[in-house]
Amino acid sequence: MTSTPTLTKNQDLVLGVLKRSDAPLSAYVILDKLRDNGFRAPLQVYRALDKLLEKGLIHRLESLNAFVACAHSGESCCSHGTVAFAICNACGHVMEFHDHTVDHRLADWTKARGFKPEKTTIEIRGLCASCAA
Amino acid sequence: MTSTPTLTKNQDLVLGVLKRSDAPLSAYVILDKLRDNGFRAPLQVYRALDKLLEKGLIHRLESLNAFVACAHSGESCCSHGTVAFAICNACGHVMEFHDHTVDHRLADWTKARGFKPEKTTIEIRGLCASCAA
DNA sequence: TACAATTATGTAATGTTATTACATATGTTG
DNA sequence: CAACATATGTAATAACATTACATAATTGTA
Ligand SMILES: [Zn+2]
Ligand SMILES: [Zn+2]
Ligand SMILES: [Zn+2]
Ligand SMILES: [Zn+2]
Q1: If both were cysteines, with which of A40, A105, B11, B81 could B7 make a disulfide (CB 3.0 to 4.6 Å apart)?
Q2: What is the mean pLDDT of residues B102-127?
Q3: Which GO biological-process labels does this protein carry (chains A, B) (predicted)?
Q4: Nearest by CB to A114, which of B89, B97, B129?
Q5: What pLDDT is recorded for position B76?
């Protein structure tokens, strides 16, 4: 009941956990956080994550095997192209952004070779301004 | 003895397997392929992979949890910036490329925010020209 | 050569991430 | 209600990766 309707109970619980977190969470960490809400098995988490990914409400960070709430929930964040992430290796903070030029360059490359893109991952691992200081 | 010197026996075996493969391989698949060469445990593979990554002879594909031989081995492929991959979801074929403009755009973004990049992942999953036809 | 230091290897056990299979429940539609 | 689709609960297993500890090979140097 904390977020957007059209979500089932489990989906809403998982999304809530991700929204309240300031760093990406693995499926098993989410599971632990939801034990008190009746979660018992990984599949309960993975099923909710799958639906939330479909709806564009969360993202999977491939280089971390972890998940974050979309930083632009509600709007067209993911409808205007590929999303990129800058991920701090020290504090775990994630910045989500979008760059049209990058999108276009990658689209040009694939188009020139007849490659049909389905999903693009851009993840920059490093140190955020605070942690690098 | 099949490839570049300065490699140990295990490193050379693992690199050989990756070079002969036309698709990315997981660590456990590599292990299976090297049973006849005395490999018994995952760690033998992971240790060799770590060293090969350090030397820039292979790449890890984060979205697949798998590894490929560098397409530009020998030269400065990885010294001239971030490498990107187009990965076919149907046949597994991987194309490795580099785009200066993409690099610069991402560098501009991070620099503007004081983020210090350490490793950047760019992976485009989709269908190669052959498979999309 | 002898020795110490470093690097590489072998093996077992364990930890982490993700899926398959099957049963039950809930909601929607005609 | 019946039929269908969607969501959930649970157990077991598969796939990916690391820790811990012991041994061997290599390298540098007194
Ligand atoms: Zn988003
Ligand atoms: Zn940080
Ligand atoms: Zn390369
Ligand atoms: Zn293909």
Answers
A1: B11
A2: 98
A3: negative regulation of DNA-templated transcription; regulation of secondary metabolite biosynthetic process
A4: B129
A5: 52
φ/ψ of A41, rounded to 5, equals -130, 150
Q: Single out the residue of A97, A128, A37, A26 nearest to residue A68, CA to CA.
A: A26
Instruction: Report pLDDT digits (tens) over B4-22.
Output: 458 999 999 999 999 999 9
Distance A96 CA to ligand 1 centre (A): 7
Q: Which residues have CB atoms below 7 Å from chain D, the nucleic strand?
A: A 8-11, 38-44, 47-48, 51; B 26-29, 41-43, 46, 65-66
What are chain A's domains?
A: 1-72 (1.10.10.10), 80-132 (3.30.1490.190)
Ligand nearest to C-alpha B96: 3
